[in-house]
Amino acid sequence: MDNEKILEAFTALSQATRLETFRVLVRFEPEGLPAGEIARLLGVPHNTMSTHLGVLSRAGLVSSRRQSRSIIYRANLDHMRETLSFLVRDCCAGRAELCEPLLAELQPACPSQESDPS
């Protein structure tokens, strides 16, 4: 990933509604949400949400697919992973012990299937 793509992603996320939109879509992976539902959850007018989703889409942070009469949006988790990897690739000049707290913070906040007792 190059600097231009990283800057485009950060530019897209530097606006409050777009940042919250992306965070909502991450929570609703892998199903995604229709644009109208995202707008309702965030209390944003539909036409404004469409503009924000366009910016996120052009930055590669969301993808969309048509489902009947709705367009379903999903967070592009691969792009998010590539962006985070780009930021920490040279973490702490190779001193792993300095990066361990950061890496622990990046662990998903959801329980793993391995720890499921059922």
TrEMBL record:
SUPFAM superfamilies, per database record: Winged helix' DNA-binding domain
Name by which UniProt lists this protein: HTH-type transcriptional regulator KmtR
InterPro entries registered for this protein in UniProt: ArsR-like_HTH (IPR011991), HTH_ArsR_DNA-bd_dom (IPR001845), Metal_resp_trans_reg (IPR051011), WH-like_DNA-bd_sf (IPR036388), WH_DNA-bd_sf (IPR036390)
Matches recorded under Pfam families: HTH_20
GO MF annotation terms: DNA binding; DNA-binding transcription factor activity
The entry's keywords: DNA-binding, Transcription, Transcription regulation
Domain of life: Bacteria
